[in-house]
Amino acid sequence: MSWKTGFRSLYYIGAPEPDDPVLVPGQTAILVIDVQNTYLERPDRASLSPQEQHRYDLWTPFHERMHGTVIPNTARLLALARQNGIECLFARIACHTKDGRDRSLSQKMPGWNNLLLPKNDAPSQLVAELQPAGDEIVVTKTTDSALTGTNLRLILHNLGVRNVICCGIFTDQCVSSTVRSLADESYAVIVLEDCCAAATEELHRKELEIINMIYCHVMSSGELCKIMALAK
């Protein structure tokens, strides 16, 4: 199944197949969202309680997908983009204060999403495999959407970008929020399904169905490279 017919929700069953997007390198940017140390670090499983070990095991498929699929595919895509004059940008969650008082409400809620990531601390940094090169731009956001939480809108405008290709985590949270914000600003958005992950494969696939065809087009990195004639 190709990107033209895949990841369709009930809303788009039977809808016409979209045309291939026209992606001029100078008007196109790769945006890597929130692939940060805090999400990839894991404790020693043997040191955990049985309850903590159960939670650890539930997250194992995510970590396997990140290390086996998402990070390698994104790294290859960044290398190709740099060779072909495509802007590479990065977004990360971090706060400007040590106590996180500048965070958005969604990042102060109790539970897993209660994020305290001071901007200079190691957990908030991008993972080693997906570091920016040269003067590539990194925006620091205190909310889920990379557009709402930063001056990324102005940056994209100044760069002459009209097409944004999104990668990163989490598909159903910051990736989705960013995609929706970009779509509302009339950017043409592509989400690369094999360069993204959610906590579970079910959440990942379901969110892609939700946003596909209305806020973005969902495709694989291989399909994108074919459309843009990038060697992969």
Automatic annotation (TrEMBL):
Q: Name one Pfam family in it.
A: Isochorismatase
Coiled-coil stretches noted in the UniProt entry, renumbered to this chain: none
Which keywords belong to this entry? Hydrolase
Q: Does the keyword Hydrolase apply?
A: yes
Q: Which Gene3D superfamilies does this chain map to?
A: Isochorismatase-like (3.40.50.850)
Q: Name one GO molecular function term.
A: hydrolase activity
Provide the Isochorismatase-like domain boundaries: 28-221
**This chain belongs to which protein, by name?**
Cysteine hydrolase family protein
Question: What taxonomic classification does the UniProt entry list for its organism?
Answer: Bacteria, Pseudomonadati, Pseudomonadota, Alphaproteobacteria, Hyphomicrobiales
